[in-house]
Design goal:
Length: 125
């Protein structure tokens, strides 16, 4: 077993891998179970990344709120528009991320309820 470059994306993968873990190109004989496990891993990773993005957006919103509070001298003076704009953009981004996260979780739920799901696949969901 050695590390080789994927012919499609060029990233390092195992020589025994049948599917590139980065781009999904099939490198050999791929069974339905292999494809299902790969898709489950991709979905799990997508949900994880969307969660991390939502935390970053919440942090931006809180930073904008702190900036708004600091700029308005404790809400006693009118602040500039930049902190408000940051808060609005962070709020909109948070809503978009939450919609994408909801859709991904619904897809995961549908995959879990699929009949004939193997234990290896359930572990990756």
């Amino acid at each position: 077993m050695s590390i080789i470059a994927c012919p499609e994306c060029g990233k390092n993968i195992s020589s025994r891998a049948v599917i590139c873990s980065h781009c999904g190109v099939e490198l050999g004989e791929v069974t339905e179970q292999d494809l299902a496990v790969f898709q489950a891993r991709r979905l799990r990773d997508r949900i994880y990344h969307l969660n991390m993005i939502s935390y970053a957006v919440i942090t931006l919103f809180l930073g904008g709120f702190g900036w708004y509070w600091w700029d308005s001298a404790g809400f006693t003076q009118p602040p500039r528009a930049v902190p408000l704009t940051l808060m609005w953009l962070a709020g909109a981004a948070y809503l978009v991320v939450r919609v994408l996260l909801f859709r991904s979780r619904q897809l995961r739920k549908a995959l879990r309820q699929k009949p004939g799901l193997g234990s290896d696949l359930r572990r990756h969901l």
